[in-house]
């Protein structure tokens, strides 16, 4: 009877240790999911604001329709790209980042084009939407930073040995960080064309 007590105690201790790893990994993973939800919430707010912005700009009869079409198409593409935070891969995050980057680029072109329309620039609805959009862009940056901050303790926990073995068996894999968009390290070229 005594020779079975030691192996049983060892098995119980290993099981308790495994449950502890699982529970901590689950808690950290939930923090990551919450942070990702906040990122998506910020992007959703931007998408909602863009719809209102486009409708306001459409009111300017002579406004360039091609620029609006680009924004609408980029917004549609950005809203179609979704990610499951529990199974996020670097490729999925890259695809999401590219879609959102395309929308940011189209939106920037829209705002630059608007500079040529003084009536639109003085429209109070447009000015309010523009301010809200700038605030939302700041919120997106903040939420992306917080997402990366939630990823760090999770990745650290599931990658440290010997927990990495148990975490890997339980399906807790490393998650990717948000990185800057391609070309973000290049200097921005600013040109002023005073002839137009």
Give a verbal description of the structure.
The chain has 196 residues and is mainly α. The protein has one domain (2-169): Up-down Bundle (de novo design (two linked rop proteins)), CATH 1.20.1440. 74% of the residues lie in helices and 0% in strands. The chain has six helices and no strands. The protein has helices at 2-58, 65-80, 90-114, 118-121, 124-159, 163-169. The model is unreliable at 190-196 (pLDDT under 50).
State the main characteristics:
196 residues, mainly alpha, de novo design (two linked rop proteins), 6 helices, 74% helix, rod-shaped
Q: Summarize the amount of helix as a percent range.
A: over 70%
Question: How much of the residues is beta strand, in percent?
Answer: under 5%
Sheet bearing the most strands, described? none
Which fold name corresponds to the CATH topology? de novo design (two linked rop proteins)
Shape: rod-shaped
**Can you identify the CATH superfamily?**
LemA-like domain
Low-confidence stretches: 190-196
CATH architecture: Up-down Bundle
Q: What's the CATH C level?
A: Mainly Alpha
Distance between the termini: 94 Å
Mean pLDDT: 82
